[in-house]
């Protein structure tokens, strides 16, 4: 029986990452707190990446999330998105 934790931020298989749908789903998870605490930085990052992969609906959700974030948090989310794109 698995008793550890999975870091959803790094657990996305590269095969799924080619689809904006998987990235969008991660944005939903982090913005809703479905699997724990709400993390707006992570939600913004995943919605940003989903939008880059063609999920048009991710754009409005990313903007909505950004309205609840500080400029520093948005900058962090953008840096994390760029780092993820570089790694994948």
Shape summary: globular
Distance between the termini: 30 Å
Write down the overall mean pLDDT: 86
Helix and strand run = HHHHH
Give the low-pLDDT segments. Answer: none
Structural class: mainly alpha
Query: Share of helix among residues?
Result: 55-70%
Radius of gyration: 12 Å
Q: Strand count, sense and closure of the main sheet? A: none
Number of helices: 5
In percent terms, what proportion of residues is strand? under 5%
Q: What is the domain total for the residues?
A: 1
Q: Count the beta strands.
A: 0
Name the features.
single chain; about 0% strand; mainly alpha; 5 helices; about 90 residues
In short:
This protein is mainly alpha-helical. Helix content is 65%, strand content 0%.
Describe the protein's architecture and organization.
Helix 2 (20-32) packs antiparallel against helix 3 (40-52), helix 3 runs antiparallel to helix 4 (57-66) and helix 3 (40-52) packs across helix 5 (71-87). It is built from 5 helices and no strands. It has one domain. With 88 residues, the chain is an all-alpha fold. It is globular, with a radius of gyration of 12 Å.
